[in-house]
Amino acid sequence: MVPNAALAVIHWNVDPTMVRLGPFAPRWYGLLFALGFLIGFYYMRTVFLREDKPERDLDALLIWLLGGTIVGARLGHVLFYAPGYYLLRPLEIPQIWEGGLASHGGLIGVLTAIYLYARSRPDQPFVWLLDRLSPPVALTGAFIRLGNLFNSEILGEPTDLPWAFVFERVDDVPRHPAQLYESISYFLIFVLLTVVYRRYRESTPRGLLIGLFMTLIFGVRFLIEYVKVAQAHFEVGMPLSMGQLLSIPAILFGLWMLWRAWQGGADADG
Is this model's pTM higher than 0.90 or not? Predict the structure, then answer.
């Protein structure tokens, strides 16, 4: 069905750049990305104080997470979505300001960063960190998807639903606001994870929060991919998108962690 252009839809024509002052041109995406990390930092500060962990470690943890997120997301985009392009243009790989970050690569980068950080801190085990970081990471994901909305990227398929968006910087077609679907979903998952953590606090069953995070975040991602435009040319005609294929192992890992949490019960050292 071809969407009717006369439908009462939401016209979106927001400039991705907040302000232009000579060479200084910050973008909404960067602000929202940074805001997610800032709120996450204060969230983890509350956790560290509550569970008697050294507050001075938070600066190092933030640096590890920032590095892991950016490097992982960029390499994920390069390897999962455009390996041929970057094989011919390797000097463009570090140019993250040109766009091209993949959430699944960001996940791998974050997991690697947390593992490396935890190796020298026996009082903060790997899974303990994964559990405590799950709520703020979900919130950061919600902010990042809002950033994608401001960039008019990661578009949805055409639709005639009354809440369709017309991304005027792209075309005049009413589309699913897929970025908004994900952002709202991730925010609700953040609320759920926060409620669960406050229920158990330091007695949170080991693996419970990261299990919920992986299962719900990537379960939502898998479903919303059905209303997204293909992110790469090679995805056209595939029964499952690259995003869905990459989400399957993440969902299975989450279900395994939930099973382990159920088997192990509460673990204060988790």
Answer: no
